[in-house]
Specification:
The complex is a heterodimer of chains A (311) and B (389). Chain A has 311 residues and is mainly alpha-helical. Chain A has helices at residues 2-49, 67-74, 76-111, 116-130, 133-143, 151-159, 176-201, 205-213, 218-229, 231-246, 250-255, 267-277, 281-307; strands at residues 51-52, 62-63. Chain A has one domain: MetI-like (MetI-like fold), CATH 1.10.3720. Chain A contains 13 helices and two strands. Chain A is flat, with a radius of gyration of 26 Å. With 389 residues, chain B is of the alpha+beta class. Helices cover 27% and strands 29% of the residues of chain B. Chain B starts with a strand and ends in a 9-residue tail after the last strand. The chains are: A mainly alpha (311), B alpha+beta (389).
Chain lengths: 311, 389
């Protein structure tokens, strides 16, 4: 009896150790990927942002402290571009996040039913997500082409019976950013729609039935059952869309190169063009580090604001 | 307060499946009517048709003298309690209970009064500001009840409201629901698959099988005078022993397997129709409590398979060499059930049950004579399954 009682905890301890070893082993691939592709590059870019390196020369790497960060806020020329890019990102996010979230929710509710036509719509709405951004951008480049031959110009001309004068969508300071916003929403909504669809399917049908019996009309069903039921989904979608908005790059790079007059430049685009076009790796790294902290900060704020009522 | 009347109600789905077959049913004012049947028998469909959550394919449903076939669920002025309670997770208990009243645009004062009253009846006063997520199963059940009673509706509909609770709480909530229903005095249609729940709660019980109404009666009548072999086997726990048997040529003995039981002349007086079955095969039904170890009279010798000691009584499972009659359920045909049972060697010959006094000296494997109370035996027609009276 005495030996039994002393053996038991020991055996249990050994089992716990075996289990945690198995668990740790299984974690290695995941953690490995995060370390190699996220943590190392992140700390490397912090290091890069504190040093000058002339790529392709044998001039020794030299520490410059916070020079590149000071540049962002004090260099008379550079400061303007950086702030303009920040502003563009801000406008982009402020417009895209609500429109895309609202539109995605609307479409999800619309296609959350059975039927062949609904299935067709669902696929169609999701299709842009499958296309690579390069392809999407090329298509939109054709759509937004300047002159009367541009698709959008031509269509607008037809439906206004010739009253519409052709616009240079991507070359006009006032139209370039809205054009980028338009194509981004078109491309991104399908993805959020699928997330909302999953959220909708998580609402028990009996909640709707209970509300129906309580005498709720369509609008009240939406307000009191659907919307609260999609609360957590919405929080997720808003956060993810915000992060995507702040990382705006592909569309800008492919369509406008930040122009005209920096009207479409984004922080991400600025970082990349500094590092690879201007051959100013340290400056690019500094910008991406700043962007990283901005995203982190915004996510934390959103979490705080939106968390309070989650049970 | 009003009654619910179903006239010739049917439900056929788009795929042609008929879930409900021409049901006539009246739930009287203030009556607690339980609809019971095996899963898939259409009882929930029936309830949802009354609620307006399913369309009525044929027939007429009226509530309080008004035909409601074309009314939306909201217009029917009913309250429904769901199996999963269907409480609004983002609303506090108070708001859950008050929701229908707010939709009806009642004055804040009136809402407050009704919610407070309901909370007192259901002892929820301390939980009014909490969300359903923080409540126990029993408390959620009470909130669902509260949501139903503040409405002061024409009728209550309840769809298996107790099946998500543990056994002990279920017994407690059973009497709570009954008390509340008596207090409010509203016609109630209560659906369950649990025949114990049905028997203990219903003023009357409706037995449903494959969308066809079998019998509507008080619990005692269902138990004592079942219309057919399905009701006989469904009502009562453990269920009635059903055996193939033959009345001999002069009607004095009933052959059950290799054994036989004397049939008194009195039996034919009580069941005049039985006379027509002399010399024919019938189904004989014997309730487990009508088989005893002590006593006088006719016996059937059975071999004991296993014994469940419940403290207050022993449930003795025993085998006979007579063939058991298997009631076809919705789950499959009689043959399928038969096959399934025959796969398990243990159950093959141990399909009969007796309830005997506790501490009786019985041992597994013994061949024991069981005294049969023949005056309480049931007889059923082999082809129709109808009771022979």
């Amino acid at each position: 009896m005495a030996t039994l009682t002393t053996q038991l905890p020991q055996r249990r301890r050994r089992r716990v150790w075996t289990e945690s070893r198995v668990g740790l082993t299984m974690l290695i691939p995941g953690i490995g990927l995060i370390v190699i592709f996220m943590l190392i590059p992140f700390f490397y870019s912090i290091w890069l942002s504190l040093h000058v390196e002339i790529v392709g020369s044998n001039i020794p790497i030299r520490s410059v402290g916070l020079l590149f960060y000071r540049h962002l806020f004090s260099d008379p020329i550079f400061r303007g571009v950086f702030l303009k890019s920040l502003e563009n990102n801000g406008i982009f996010a402020l417009v895209v996040v609500p429109i895309q979230t609202g539109l995605a929710m609307f479409l999800a509710i619309l296609v959350n039913r059975q039927g062949a036509f609904v299935k067709f719509c669902r696929t169609t709405f999701f299709l842009p997500v499958v296309f690579p951004m390069v392809l999407t951008s090329l298509i939109w480049k054709a759509i937004l082409a300047p002159g009367p031959a541009g698709m959008l110009n031509a269509v607008l001309r037809i439906i206004t019976f010739g009253h519409f004068s052709p616009q240079y969508w991507l070359g006009n300071v006032h139209l370039a950013l809205p054009s980028i916003i338009l194509l981004s929403v078109w491309q991104g909504t399908g993805f959020q729609m699928v997330i909302f669809l999953a959220g909708l399917q998580g609402i028990p049908p009996s909640h709707y039935e209970a509300a129906l019996i309580d005498g709720a009309n369509r609008w009240q069903l939406f307000r009191d059952v659907t919307l609260p039921g999609l609360r957590n989904t919405t929080i997720f979608v808003v956060m993810v869309t915000t992060i995507f908005s702040l990382q705006l790059f592909d569309q800008v790079y492919l369509l406008t190169q930040g122009g005209p007059l920096n009207a479409t430049s984004s922080v991400m685009y600025l970082a990349v063009s500094q590092a690879y076009v201007a051959n100013n790796v340290g400056q690019g790294a500094a910008i991406s580090v700043v962007l990283c902290f901005i995203i982190l900060l915004l996510s934390l704020i959103q979490r705080q604001v939106l968390r309070e009522r989650v049970d | 307060m009003s009654e619910i009347i179903l006239r010739d109600v049917s439900k056929t789905y788009d795929n042609g499946y008929q879930a409900i077959h021409q049901i006539d049913l009246t739930v009287r004012e203030g009556e607690f009517m339980v609809v019971v049947g095996p899963s898939g028998c259409g009882k929930s469909t029936l309830l949802r048709m009354v609620a307006g959550l399913e369309t009525v394919s044929d027939g007429e449903i009226s509530i309080g003298g008004e035909v409601v076939n074309d009314f939306t669920p909201g217009e029917r002025d009913l309250a429904m309690v769901f199996q999963n309670y269907a409480l609004y997770p983002h609303m506090t208990v108070e708001k859950n209970i008050a929701y229908s009243l707010r939709l009806r645009k009642l004055s804040g004062q009136e809402i407050q009064r009704r919610v407070t009253e309901a909370a007192e009846i259901l002892s929820l006063t301390d939980y009014l500001k909490q969300r359903p997520g923080r409540l126990s199963g029993g408390q959620r059940q009470r909130v669902a009840m509260g949501r139903a009673i503040v409405r002061e509706p024409k009728a209550f509909l309840m769809d298996e409201p107790l099946s998500n609770l543990d056994a002990k709480l279920r017994v407690q909530m059973r009497s709570e629901i009954l008390q509340i229903q008596r207090r409010v005095g509203v016609a109630t249609l209560y659906v369950t698959h649990d025949q114990v729940e049905a028997m203990t709660m219903g003023d009357r019980v409706t037995v449903l099988r494959a969308g066809v109404l079998q019998q509507v009666d008080t619990a005692q009548t269902l138990y004592d005078r079942p219309h057919n072999v399905f009701v006989a086997s469904f009502v009562g726990s453990p269920s009635m022993n059903l055996l193939y048997a033959t009345l001999n040529g002069d009607g004095t003995r009933l052959q059950v397997g290799s054994q036989s039981l004397a049939v008194s002349a009195e039996t034919f007086v009580r069941r005049p129709t039985l006379r027509a079955y002399v010399g024919r095969e019938v189904i004989v039904g014997i309730r487990p409590e009508d088989l005893t170890l002590e006593g006088a009279g006719e016996t059937l010798v059975g071999r004991i398979g296993h014994i469940e000691a419940l403290g207050s009584e022993l449930i003795v499972h025993f085998g006979l060499d007579a063939r058991n009659y298997v009631v076809e359920d919705k789950g499959g045909s009689a043959e399928e059930v038969e096959e399934l049972l025959e796969e398990t060697a243990l159950t093959q010959h141990v399909r009969n049950v007796a309830r005997v006094a506790p501490r009786s000296s019985v041992t597994t494997g013994d061949a024991v004579p069981f005294h049969v109370s023949m005056e309480r035996a049931h007889f059923f027609d082999l082809s129709t399954g109808e009771s022979i009276w």
